[in-house]
Inverse folding.
C-alpha cells in the first residue's frame, strides 16, 4: 500500500521496496476546472495521495483509508452532466486519467488574490446550522450534499420525500461529533428553500 | 376352403389380440389403482411413539436437541431475517416457484405443537407431514439419514421453544407442482436410503463426519447438481450446484485440493467463517451463521475429515505471484482496472487487508476454473460480514456501473492469471450473461 497515512513532504517516489518496485504512470486530470498534471506517479497511487502530494490540494480528508467513512470523497463529473461521489482513499489516481473532478477546494468563490469571497450554498448552510464541530468529515458531507443538490436540479422530488432522500444521500458518511442531525437539517432546509428542487406532493395520488 | 381357412386365422388373431388387450387392460387398471393408492398414501410408513412423547425432556436432552437443530441448520429455511426463531422462513426461489419454510415452533394452530415425535421423524425421514407430503425443498433426501434418537432430541427441543402464532406463507407452485400428492411419486423415484460418499475413509471421525455432512448438514442439497425434476444428480455428488445468483462450488476432495484447501484451513473456514482462501459469502454465509460455527471442535474436524477423506489429497499450491502477467492485452488492461478499483482494499500484491477485504492471492473463488462466482461478486458486491469474535469484512461495492463487460472480463482475467492459476479465458459475453440477472444490488 501507499504511504498515505504519513505526512511526507516530498512525493513518495521511493515507497518501501518490500516487493518489486512498481512502475510509474503518467496521470493528468481536471480538478476544480483546472488542468492538473501530467505527473509521473506510482501506478498504485490512490487519488487521496495524488491530491495531497502532487496536486497540492490538502482539503480532502483521509479518514479510515478503507472506503467506509467517506471523508475522502470527491465529485466525479461525467460528460453527460451528471455527477457522483467517488471515494479517494480506495480509488486509484489513474482511474481519473483524463476525467473531471471537484474537491472541497472547488466550492467557494475566490477573488484574484485567492481569498474566499463567497461560500457555496451548501457550505453556507452548514455554517448557519452549526453542522460540524471538528470538521474532519465536512469535505465529504459538502460533496455529498452538492451531488444531491445537482441531482435534484435535474430530477426534482416530492416535498414529502425530502426527509428520506437526504437520509439516503448522507447515509454513508460518518461523523463523530454532531451526530448527523445538524447536517441533515441543513441539507433539508437548503433543498426546501431552493426553487426548482422539489415539487408539490401528492400528484395523481 | 382357402377363404374359410383365412377367416379362421383372422378370427384366431382377433381373439388373441382381444385377450392381449384384456391382459394389458387389467395390468393398466392394477397399475392405476396401485399408483392411486401410492399417491393417496396407502403405502406411507408410520412409526412408534417414543420416550419424548411421554416423559418431560431433561436439560441434557434439550441441549443436545438445540445443538443438533443448529447442526441441521433448520433456521436456514425456518427462520426469517429479523423474524422469531423457527416461526417460518424467507422466500426460497426454486425452478418450480417460490416456497417458504414453515412455522416449526410448538404453536398448536400454526406450528408443530400437535405433532408427535413419530410425525416429526416421518417428516425428516420420508418427507411426509401429518396432513400432506412435504416438498423436497425440505431436505428430507438428506435428513433421511438422521437417527430416530437425534430426531427425537430435535423434536423435544423444538417443542420447548416459544410458540409463535404465525401462519405459514406457503408456496406459489403452479400446476402440476401444486399437487402435493405427486411428491409420493417423486419419493419413489428419488428418495434414497443412503447418499453416495464423496471421499474414502473408515475412521470413526470420518464416519461421524459423513453423518454430519450427509444427514444433518445436508451439504449435498446445494453442492450437488440437480436434474429437471429437482432431484439430486447423485453421480456428481458434491461436485457443485446451481444456487440462485451464486453457484455452490465443487467440494469433492479433488475440487477442494485444486483450490488449495488443507484440512486445517477448511476447519478454520467452517469454524470462523474465513481462512487464507477467503471468506464465506452468499448462502454459505447464512449456513455459517446459523449452523457451522456452532459445531464443536470434534464435529468440525469430523466434517472436514469426511469432506477430504481419511487420506486428504495434497493441496495444489497457489501460483507464484510475480510469475503471471505476460503480454496478454486483456490481462494488462485488467491490471489497470485492479489498481484503479480494487487495490485500495485487496492490496496491490493481492494480499488483502485483515478485517477489510480478503486476499486475492490463493483465493478459492479466484482459483475456481468457472468464473461464475467471481464475476457475480465483482458485479453485485457483497454485504458487510461479521464472523466469530470481533472479526469482520467490510462491504464490497458492486462494480457493475464502473466497468463495462469487456472491462469486467479483463479484470477477471488479470485476477485468474495472476492469483488463481487459471486461464485468462473470460469473455465479455460471459459477463453480459450474468449482468443484471436477478441482481438487485448496486
Amino acid at each position: 500500500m501507499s504511504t498515505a497515512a504519513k505526512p511526507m513532504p516530498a512525493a513518495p517516489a521511493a515507497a518501501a521496496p518490500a516487493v518489486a518496485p512498481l512502475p510509474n504512470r503518467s496521470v493528468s486530470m481536471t480538478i476544480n476546472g483546472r488542468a492538473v498534471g501530467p505527473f509521473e506517479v506510482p501506478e498504485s497511487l490512490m487519488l487521496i495521495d495524488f491530491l495531497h502530494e502532487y496536486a497540492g490540494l490538502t482539503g480532502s480528508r483521509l479518514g479510515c483509508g478503507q472506503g467506509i467513512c467517506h471523508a475522502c470523497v470527491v465529485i466525479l463529473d461525467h460528460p453527460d452532466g451528471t455527477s457522483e461521489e467517488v471515494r479517494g482513499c480506495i480509488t486509484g489516481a489513474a482511474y481519473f486519467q483524463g476525467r473531471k473532478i471537484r474537491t472541497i477546494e472547488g466550492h467557494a468563490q475566490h477573488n484574484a488574490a485567492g481569498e474566499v469571497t463567497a461560500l457555496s450554498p451548501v457550505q453556507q448552510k452548514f455554517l448557519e446550522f452549526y453542522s460540524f464541530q471538528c470538521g474532519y468529515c465536512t469535505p465529504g458531507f459538502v460533496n455529498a450534499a452538492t451531488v444531491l443538490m445537482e441531482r435534484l436540479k435535474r430530477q426534482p422530488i416530492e416535498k414529502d420525500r425530502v426527509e428520506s432522500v437526504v437520509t439516503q444521500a448522507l447515509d454513508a458518511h460518518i461523523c463523530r461529533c454532531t451526530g448527523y442531525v445538524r447536517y441533515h437539517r441543513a441539507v433539508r432546509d437548503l433543498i426546501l428553500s431552493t426553487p426548482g428542487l422539489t415539487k408539490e406532493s401528492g400528484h395523481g395520488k | 376352403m382357402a377363404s374359410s381357412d383365412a377367416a379362421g386365422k383372422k378370427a384366431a388373431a382377433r381373439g388373441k389380440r382381444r385377450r392381449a388387450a384384456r391382459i394389458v387392460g387389467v395390468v393398466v387398471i392394477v397399475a392405476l389403482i396401485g399408483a392411486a393408492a401410492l399417491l393417496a398414501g396407502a403405502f406411507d410408513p408410520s412409526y412408534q411413539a417414543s420416550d419424548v412423547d411421554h416423559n418431560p425432556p431433561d436439560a441434557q436432552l434439550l441441549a443436545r436437541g438445540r445443538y443438533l437443530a443448529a447442526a441441521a441448520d433448520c433456521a436456514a429455511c425456518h427462520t426469517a431475517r429479523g423474524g422469531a426463531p423457527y416461526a417460518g422462513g424467507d422466500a426460497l426461489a426454486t425452478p418450480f416457484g417460490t416456497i417458504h419454510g414453515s412455522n416449526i415452533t410448538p404453536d398448536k394452530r400454526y406450528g408443530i405443537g400437535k405433532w408427535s415425535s413419530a410425525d416429526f421423524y416421518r417428516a425428516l425421514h420420508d418427507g411426509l407431514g401429518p396432513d400432506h407430503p412435504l416438498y423436497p425443498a425440505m431436505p428430507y433426501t438428506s435428513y433421511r439419514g438422521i437417527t430416530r434418537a437425534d430426531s427425537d432430541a430435535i423434536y423435544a427441543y423444538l417443542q420447548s421453544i416459544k410458540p409463535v402464532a404465525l401462519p405459514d406463507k406457503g408456496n406459489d407452485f403452479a400446476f402440476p407442482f401444486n399437487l402435493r400428492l405427486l411428491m409420493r411419486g417423486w419419493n419413489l423415484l428419488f428418495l434414497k436410503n443412503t447418499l453416495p460418499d464423496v471421499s474414502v475413509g473408515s475412521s470413526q471421525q470420518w464416519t461421524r463426519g459423513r453423518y454430519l455432512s450427509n444427514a444433518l448438514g445436508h451439504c449435498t442439497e446445494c453442492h450437488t447438481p440437480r436434474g429437471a425434476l429437482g432431484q439430486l444428480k447423485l453421480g456428481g455428488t458434491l461436485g457443485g450446484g446451481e444456487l440462485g445468483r451464486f453457484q455452490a462450488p465443487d467440494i469433492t476432495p479433488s475440487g477442494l485440493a485444486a483450490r488449495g484447501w488443507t484440512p486445517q484451513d477448511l476447519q478454520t473456514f467452517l469454524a470462523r467463517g474465513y481462512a487464507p482462501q477467503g471468506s464465506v459469502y452468499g448462502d454459505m454465509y447464512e449456513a455459517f451463521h446459523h449452523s457451522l460455527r456452532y459445531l464443536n471442535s470434534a464435529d468440525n474436524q469430523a466434517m472436514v475429515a469426511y469432506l477430504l477423506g481419511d487420506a486428504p489429497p495434497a493441496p495444489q499450491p497457489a501460483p507464484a505471484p510475480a510469475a503471471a502477467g505476460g503480454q496478454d492485452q486483456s490481462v494488462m488492461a485488467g491490471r489497470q482496472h485492479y489498481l484503479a478499483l480494487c487495490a485500495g482494499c485487496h492490496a496491490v500484491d493481492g494480499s488483502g487487508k485483515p478485517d477489510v477485504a480478503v486476499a486475492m492471492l490463493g483465493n478459492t473463488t479466484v482459483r475456481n476454473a468457472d468464473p461464475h462466482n467471481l464475476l457475480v461478486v465483482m458485479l453485485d458486491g457483497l454485504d458487510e460480514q461479521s464472523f466469530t469474535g470481533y472479526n469482520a469484512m467490510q462491504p464490497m461495492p458492486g462494480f457493475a456501473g464502473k466497468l463495462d463487460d469487456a472491462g469486467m472480463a479483463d479484470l477477471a482475467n488479470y485476477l485468474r492469471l495472476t492469483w488463481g492459476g487459471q486461464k485468462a479465458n473470460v469473455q465479455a459475453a460471459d459477463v453480459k450473461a450474468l449482468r443484471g440477472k436477478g441482481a438487485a444490488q448496486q
Remarks:
- The interface with chain A takes residues 322, 336, 339-341, 343-345, 347-349, 353, 356, 394, 397 of chain B (CB under 8 Å).
